[in-house]
Design brief:
77% helix; 0% strand; 10 helices; mainly alpha; single chain; 206 residues; elongated
Length: 206
Amino acid sequence: MEIQLKDILKQVASMFCKYGIKSVSMDDVAREIGVSKKTVYLFFKDKEDLVLKSLEHIQASHLDWIQNLPRDQYNAVEEVLEINRKIREIFGGSTPVIDFDLRKYYPKLHKKVNANHDEVVLSMMETNIEKGRKEGLFRSDFDARLISVLHYRKAFDVISSFEPDEVNSRMDAMKQIIEYHLRGMCTPKGIEELEKYNQKHTTNEK
């Protein structure tokens, strides 16, 4: 069976998420996929090209899920919490070393791969805030763009600060960060929806 680029990217992305970027060599990739290193170089001109395409694949898959969330089934509060739940699932199987390695060893790539991703996410956050305001769940007395950027940047910095083996602490931090963010935006009606969601999911987890 002929190997496809998308299959390679899926496996490489998984390796990067698990081990970080620096520790994964082209030889490791060849062994994982079950091909020669020469074959790997048919798809990627060097390690940097491999990193770029793999990270673009990771981001595309994450954004695809978020953008295809059936928003008509959720109010604005539920929408944020559902996305956060999915992100916790994703981060639970990955390591923050991937971002550390990208910043340290590939700073230009870090800026490139995050630029478009960040703008798409921030735009979706602003759209969610406007939806919440129309539903009477979010307050109208704050700047939607400013709060979106503040939450996005700070949340990412906190999450990336944990050691690779601190998975439970990272997951708990993500949960508390989104709770803090929502309580700061919500009206009393929004708080009711937040507590209703938490009660429902706490009950389901028991």
